[in-house]
Structure prediction request, 143 residues.
Amino acid sequence: MRRIRSSLNGTGFAILIAAGVNLFVLLCMCVLLTSYRPPRYGVNIRPAASHFVIGAYDRSLSHIITISPGETPRFFLDDREIPGGLEGVERQLAEWDCPTPARVTVIIACDEAVAAGSVQQLADKVLMHGFSCAFYGRPDADK
Prediction:
């Protein structure tokens, strides 16, 4: 029987360390790649953690409506689509029954590809129902 001998001189420990580091990096990459959760409908908006408002602030009195660009724009309330387009938004605004509608803030979120007329129509509907209206914008990255 022949005996097989290794020609490597004491490098086994270094190979084990290198393999362990590579496995750790691979594990970290797998965790980072699978932990990303993309927004459901383009823009992910959350109200700020603090507000400088005198009096009580109730987060249930703020709603986010997102407009997606296109020939027929689609409207999303928080994380679900409002069926029926602008008429559906009208029905949704009528459903929000509250004693003081001026305390309810509707945040309109859209990107620059949305027609200005669509944004203005939505803002008009929100204001006609007596709600407060705010716009969400992202600052230009080039400046």
User: Anything to note?
Assistant: Residues 12-34 form the longest helix (23 residues). The mean pLDDT is 78.
